[in-house]
Design goal:
This protein is mainly β. It has no helices and 33 strands. Strands 1-14-13-12-11 form a five-stranded mixed beta sheet, with no helix packed on it. A hairpin with a 4-residue loop joins strand 16 and strand 17 (235-239). It is globular. The N and C termini lie far apart (55 Å).
Amino acid sequence: MILIAMWLGAGAAMVYLWMARDEQASLAPAQPAPGVPIRAEPGTRAAERRADLPVAPPEEGPPTTFQADRRHTGRSPFVGPARPATAWTHETAGRITAQPVADRAGNVYVGSHDGILYALTASGRPRWQKNLGGAIYSTPAIDDAGNVYVGSDAKVFDSYDRGGTLRWRLETEGDADTGVTIAPSGNIHFGAGSDLWSVQPDGTVLWRFRSGGKIFTTPVVDDDGTVYVGSQDDQFYAIAADGEQRWSYRTGGDNDGSAVLGDDGTIYFGSDDDHVYALTRDGDLRWSVDLEGMVRAPVALTLDGGVLVGVFGPRPRLVALNADDGALRWYFPVTLSGTRELGIASGAAVDREGNIYFGAHDDYLYSLAPTGELRWVHEVGGDVDANPVIIGDGTLLIGSDDRHVHAIVTAE
């Protein structure tokens, strides 16, 4: 065990980095990070203006990260099922609220509340599994070398190679239960407790940014490395690539809805104050819309840049908004009781033809046409909190409270 502790001046906090060793593998040591700061105040970068920076399109490929890419658009380069049929399921011993991811070979990785990270073949057969010691809410991320990064509520964050050998482990002091996002630099970003972490692929901790509350949203990473993340302190943060706060924006409730970076650089996210917000890269409000229900689902984008928002009760529905002014395009209701605690927590996936896929707390997976009409509905046996994803052969993957990963294909 390696303990790294350096005082950064009067009143500074100590940072701990632990490295765990797999009992059957010799780990490459995580590199020391002397002087790693825990930052919590705005830095000198707060005055920089960034609204007019161009936005690079996401790289096409399999869904290796939360909501398909580091911008969290939810867009897939593949076409999803036209009519639903179950190709296979894989049972775990706990609920599945994390999104599955897939590598270029079609292998599937998903975490369960049973604490196990499962690696499956494209046909659903087990490859390997790892016990992280606590419920896994975290959506893994896969880098270009095939390494997998994932956290758990055992307050650990792990990296495994494609064969399942543990490369390194960090102890995070808080539940590491957000999705994982990889920056253009290759650095890894995730939330644990009230901290946003930035870690190099070899396990070196670069920095931690401390918010005033629990972080339960998966960070979005911009082209210049700026990270956008919401917190339960009613703040939404922009953090520069070096860990300094650029700005924060206060909402009227917990911010548990993961954001999306739009095609023009606008940042969209939802909040427990029933609103969805559109901010510039400089933290200025473009618009906000009251949707009369909590917005805890990740916000996604239609093919033409429109905004897709899942809403909780008393009127649970998927809403499509104009990107430029927040005006309503259409909405699709789901049948649930009027409680504010149920609705749509699943982020939408959008296929190459613009078709939309999402789950709800009514045990169903839905597909809509780009204009909001129902294409099909498919029962999965439990509430759907996870985001669906589409892999290269057109199979749609979704986890459910019924403890299964479901692979949905086009019915013959």
